[in-house]
Design brief:
By secondary structure, this protein is mainly alpha-helical. The chain is built from 13 helices and no strands. Helices cover 73% and strands 0% of the residues. The longest helix has 38 residues.
Length: 310
Amino acid sequence: MTSANVAGGTKSSKFFKPAKARGSENAWTVGRAVGQIVLVLCALTIFVPVVWVFFASFKDKSEFYGNPWTLPQGLHWQNYLDAFKDANLGQYFGTSVFVTALAMVLALVVALPCSYVMARFDFPGKRILKLAIQGGLFINVNYIVVPIFLMLVDADKLLYEIFPNGFFVNSPVMLAVVYAATSLPFTIFLLQDFFASIPKDFEEAALIDGASQFTIMVRIFFPMAMPAISMSMLFNFLSYWNDYIISMTLLTGKDRTIQVGLLNLMQTQKAATNYGRLYAGMVIVMVPVLIFYAIVQKKLLQTSTMGGLK
């Protein structure tokens, strides 16, 4: 066989692949196309209702009696003003922001050092503590909200002479504490696995340079764990912001969260047939979620090592 034939055979092999390889490649292409179509359809099922609610929030009361898919004739901002003032969504919105922010701070302050210690150190009782944290993942807080409420009522009875109006029940601060406490199992479980996956080379290099364990934790591991921290913050934010049962049970006075206020607005506006104000309240609830996701989504895509090893 001449060299030309060999060269020709080599070139031809680039253009003619075995039937089995071509079949697997075609199957992968078809599977990828089907997956993309499914993702597009799922995105449309979320995108279309959100856009429809956004446009409906600017419609006048008379526009809802025609075609529901028509665009608003103008920007009726009065719906948002009425929702904020007349329906007290402004006060409820402020309460939700305060409770959510405080709960996220408390959860991170407790979960970050706990998950770091669980992942990087060995100590007596670690296995039992790890099993307890994993068991907490299977407890739905909505099922134990009544016992929590009764415990807080009994605590208020003990402090009645000092706080006659109560301290634990109907308190946004205590609601934030309950939120943070009930989300600790998930937050610690997520961060612990991430801390355990970081190579020991970072820790050994920092110890050689004379860094303390606290410095290693704060200045090396926490910045590297920003993708996991951002993911836990996103899930916790959605859990706190969208909660209805716990906030309705523990906040019985004027301080209500935005979800409870939105339900009250829905019941009121259905009777008054003022749907523009109702959709404006829905947009007010959705906007913080979209803003928070836009803030943390870049951190979710970062890698853990970020080129730290050389």
